[in-house]
Queue: 2 jobs
Job 1
Amino acid sequence: MPHIPEEFIDQLRQRTDIVDVVGGFVPVKKRGADHWACCPFHKEKTPSFKIDSQRQTFYCFGCKKSGNLFHFIQEMVNTDFVGAIHWLADRYGLAVPEAHRAGGDGAAGEQRRQWREKGQKLLNEAADWYHHLLQQPQAEKARAYLHSREIDGDAIEKFNLGYCLDSWDALCHWAASRGYPPELLQATGLVSQKDGSTGFYDRFRDRLIFPIHDELNRVVGFSARILSPDAKAAKYVNSPESDFFQKGAILYGLNHARASLKTFGHALVCEGQLDVIACHRAGLTNAVAAQGTAFTENHARLLKRSTNNVVLAFDADTAGDKAAQRTIAILHEAGVTAAVVSLPAGEDPDSIFRHGGAEALRSIMSVTEPAVPYMFRRACDIHDLNLPEGKSLIVADVLAAIRPLADPVARTAHCQWLATQLHLPENVLFDALNALQASHAQHAASTPFRPAPGPSDRPAGREPAPFRLPAFTMPEDNEKVWQTILDLVLHFEDLALRLADDAETTRLLPDTPLGMAISRVLACVDQNSWPDAMDALCHDELIRHPTVGAVIAKSAFPYRPKPKAPTPVSAFAASAPGPEEEDISAEKTAQAYQDCRKRLQLAELLRISSEKQLALQTATGEEAKQLMRELTELNRKKRLL
Ligand SMILES: [Zn+2]
C-alpha cells in the first residue's frame, strides 16, 4: 500500500467537511445541530442518515451503516482508504475553505489538547527521524550491531528501530528547524537540561533506538541501547516519566500483542525489548515486556483486560528468579494465573532464537510450570528440605505466592498440595497462611482465611447430597450490556476511570468490535488522555461496526450539561435545546454502570456453573468433591450479586 504521510491525511481532515462531501451525493438538510439526508446506501423517503459535522462521522438509523468521512467515500465510490484520499484530494485540493470543528472543552482544555497533540506529533516524527538515520552512513555501528543480533529488515520496520547521532545537539537542531519549542522537547523527554543553565542537550546519543508505543500505536517514549561494548555508560537510557510516558502503564510490544492475547489464551512476559522482538519473529505474537521497570499491578491490569493467564519468561539467574517471584505475587493478587518458562541457564528468548531459530524458541516457550510448583522447586534449590529450618523457609517462600490468591478454593488446594510435598499436616500450613494474611496490614480489612471444607471435615461414609442450582433466567444479551458500557465510558470520564480499575469487569471484555472499542477507550485512559477517546474511535475502522457506530451517533444517556462554550451564531442559530441537552445525574449513570457490571458478572457465573455441572455428571471421587466445592463457592458469589 502506498505510504501517505499522516500529516497530509490530517491536512485533508482539516480542509474538508463530511457535510459537503455527502451533500455532493444526496441533498442534506440541517436540523438542530445535526445534518440529515436520505441514506445513499438504502432506499428511503424520510431522512434517517445522520451526519455529525463536529466528529465528521455518519450513521444511518435505517441500515445501520456508519463511519467517518473516508469510510463514506470508500462506500460511495467503491474504493479503499488510499483511493478515498486521492478522490478527496483531487476534488478539494487546497482551494476548499477550512472546515471548523467545534469543541466545547473551553480554552484551557483546548490548549492542553493542542499541547498534547503537538508533543505526540513530535514523538512520532522523532521516531521516524531516528528510523531514517539508521540507514545513513553514520549509523554503520548500529547496523552492524543489528546484524550481529540477526535482526532483519522486517523486524526493524515492525518495531520502527532507529539510531541517534553521536552529537549533543543534532536532535535540538532538527526539532528547531521544524518549529518545535525547547519546552516541548523537554516535556517529551527528548532532551536534558544543562546543569546550572537554561540550555538543553540531546538525551540520546550514539545509541540504538527502540521507540515505545502505547496501545494506540502512538510513540510515547524511547529506550536507547548503548553500542560500544566497552563504554562505561548505562546499557540503556530510557525516556523519563512525563505527561507522555508513564512506564508503569506501558508494556513494550502490547500494541502488536493485544490482538493475539485471546487467541493464545495467555500473555508472554519477557524481560527486554530484544526478547519481545525475538518472540514476535518466532510467531509468539503474545509477547510483551515491562518497560525499564519492574512489573507492576498496573501492568497486570492491562493484561487482565484480555487474558487471565500470564507466562513469565525471565532469565535463569538469581535476578530473574527474584523478578519472577515478585511478579507472581503481583499477578496472583490481581487474580491472574501465573506460570513460568524455565529457560536454559545463560540464555534468554533472544539468544535462543538466534542460536536455535523459531522452532527452538517456540518449543521452549511451550513448556511451562505453574507458579506454585515453580516457587516450591526454586525454594528447595535454596533451602535444605531435610532441615526443620529449611522446611520453614520453604513454606514461607511458597506461601508468599499462595497468600495473594483471591480464590479460597485455589488457596486451599495449593496448601494441601504443599502439605503433601513437605509431609506436614495441612492444618499447620493453614495456620501459617492465616498468620501471613494477618501480618499483611493492607489486607487487614479482608475476611480471615478459612479453609474450604475438605474431605476430613465430612462425616465418614456419607456422600454429600447432589448439588442443585436454583432455577435461573438468562440475563439479557451481553452484547446489549457491553453497548451500554461503551456508551457510558465514552461519554463520562468518571465511569471510564472506574472501568479501567475494574478488573473483574474488564477481564470479561469480549473479543468483538464492541469489546475492542471499549479497550480503545481504556487505552486512552491509561495514557491520561480520555478526552481523545472519541476522536480515536471516529478515526478507527471500528466505527464501521453498526453497534459501535450507533453508540457514537447517539448516546442513550443525554449529556450532563457542561459550561457552554460560545458558539458561532450562524452555525447553531436554529438549534433549540432538545432532549439531548437535558440533565442526567451522575447517580443515574453510575447506577446504569453498576447494573451492567452485575449482569455481566452474573452471566459469567452462570456460564462457569453450567460448565462445572456438566463436568460433575461424569466426575467421581476427589474430582467430584472438588467440583462440588467450586460450585458452592460460585453459588455464594452469585448470592452476593
Ligand atoms: Zn441507510
Job 2
Amino acid sequence: MQKPLCLRGTGHRDGENFHFPSDCYRRRSSLTSGIGMQVKDQVVVVTGGAHGIGRAMCRRFAAEGARGVVVADLDAVAASGVAREIGGLAVRTDVSVPADLQALVAAAEQKFGTIDLFCSNAGIETGGGLDAPDEAWQRIWQINVMAHVYGARAVLPGMLKRGRGYLLQTASAAGLLTQMSSAPYSATKHAAVGLADWLAITYGDAGIKVSCLCPLGVRTNMLMGTEDPIAVFLRQGAIDPEQVAQAVVDGLAREDFLILPHPEVAEFFRRKADDYDRWLRGMKRLRASLPGMPEPKA
Ligand SMILES: NC(=O)c1ccc[n+]([C@@H]2O[C@H](COP(=O)([O-])OP(=O)(O)OC[C@H]3O[C@@H](n4cnc5c(N)ncnc54)[C@H](O)[C@@H]3O)[C@@H](O)[C@H]2O)c1
C-alpha cells in the first residue's frame, strides 16, 4: 500500500516518494548578503508586475530603495494601482508582442534612465497534455518562452553597451522537475530554464548577470484560482509571494543563477540528475497517488 504523502517538515526521501516540506524557506529567509546586486538606487522593470509574484517583487524592490520601479502588465488598471502605491511607473505591456517590450524599455528609460535589472516574470498556465489545442500551446509558448526572448532583445543592447546589467527570468520548479498535469507548462518552463542558461553562458563575460527564479507553489491567482489536482497538491506546501520576493532579493545579492524560494527543489533536482530513472519511478508513483489526476489521453 502507498504510504500517505507527507507534505510538511520532513525534507527527506522515503524510498522513491518525494516529501514536500513547506517551511524550509523560513529557515533560510533571514539571509542577507552584500556581495552581489543591491536593488537600492537601481532602476528595475518587472513584467507581470500587477499581481502575484511580480507585484510582491515590485513592492519589495521599492522598499529596498530602488530608484525606479516599472510595473509592466497586460492588466493596466492593476498595474497602475501597484505603481501608484510604490511611486513607480505603470506600462501596459503584452509580453507576447515584441513591439510592446521595445516600448516598455523606452518608457522605462525615459522616466528613470537606464535599466539595471529587468525581471521577465509574466507567465501563464494552461492545463492539458497532448490533447491541449495547438492555439493553447502557441499562446503559452509566446508568453512563457518568447517573452523572455523579446525582453532580452529589447533590454540587452543597452546593457551590453554599458557592460553591465541583470536579467531575472521567472521560470518555475516545473522547468527543473515537471508539472504533472500540464504538458504545455512543463515544456515551456523547461525551455525558459534552458534560455536562461544560454543567456548566462553567452553574456556572462560581457558583464550581464542572469538569475532564474524557480519556485514551487506560491499563493497567487495562478495557484489558488484552479482546482487542478497538482495545484491543489502544491497548495499544501505553498509560500506567499512576499517570501518569493525575499528569496529574490537574497538571490540577487548572492548573484545565484538558480533562485529557489523552496530549498527542497535543489534536493529534488539533485536526485533527478543523480538517477533519472529512479526519479521518474518516484514521480509516476506520486502521480498515481494523487486524487483527481486525469487518465492520460491519446
Ligand atoms: N504561483 C505559482 O505557484 C508559481 C510557481 C512557479 C512559477 N510561477 C511563475 O511565476 C510567474 C508569475 O506568476 P504568478 O503566480 O504571480 O501568477 P499571477 O497570475 O498572479 O500573475 C501573473 C501576472 O502576469 C500577467 N500577465 C499574463 N499574461 C501577460 C501578458 N501576455 N503580458 C503581460 N502580462 C501578463 C497577469 O496579468 C498577472 O499580473 C509566472 O511566470 C509563473 O509561471 C508561479
